Amino acid sequence: MTDETATLDELERRLPNAEESHAMSLASLKAAFAGESQAAEKYLVFAEKAEADGLPNVANLFRAISFAETRHARNHFRVMAGIKATADNLQTAFEGESFEIDEMYPAYVEVAKTQGDSQARKSMMWAQKAEMDHKAMYAQARETVLGGGDVEAQPVSVCLICGHTVIGDVPDKCPVCAAKKEMYRTFSA
């Protein structure tokens, strides 16, 4: 057993486990999961701002505490039994994207339009379009997993401006926000 395996085994033994929680505890866990998840992301944005302001140590503090908030969220999610088999997790992700596409963003976009908030509308429209890509990607991945396989090893790239996501070759221009090819971040397995 390697040191890394021992560390992972120890981590797994010490983390909270799934349990059937009572209604109020479950509601508290769900709210805490949402709050911790939002805090973690917010602190990463704050870290970027601190870096831009020439404050690398403050940025490091934000990143470290973001990591802690992520740990809290993950512990809450474990206790809620949110982690399932990969095919089930893909279905959950598909359903989440479907909700955002079909219900959440259409309502939010309409409110922003009605109130004349063009930047809010743009942000939400970009997100909704990206969610459509994500939904299709999750559906395809789930089919492959249910068939006993893994998705093909290809780069997955995300537009840094609008979140448009593409598997394989990056377009010369983002089809959502018209950003240049260089504005994509690529993730490789």
Number of domains: 3
Radius of gyration: 19 Å
What share of the residues lie within helices?
55-70%
Placed side by side, the strands forming the largest sheet appear as 2-1-3
Q: What is the oligomeric state here?
A: single chain
Task: Please give the CATH architecture of the largest domain.
Answer: Up-down Bundle
Keywords, please?
189 residues; Rubrerythrin, domain 2; Ferritin; 5 helices; three-stranded antiparallel β-sheet; mainly alpha
Question: What do these coordinates show?
Answer:
With 189 residues, the protein is mostly helical. It has three domains: 3-79, Up-down Bundle (Ferritin), CATH 1.20.1260; 85-150, Ferritin (Up-down Bundle), CATH 1.20.1260.10; 152-189, Rubrerythrin, domain 2 (Single Sheet), CATH 2.20.28. Helices cover 66% and strands 6% of the residues. Strands 2-1-3 form a three-stranded antiparallel sheet. The longest helix is centred in the N-terminal third of the chain and has 30 residues, at 23-52. The model has no long low-confidence stretch (mean pLDDT 95).
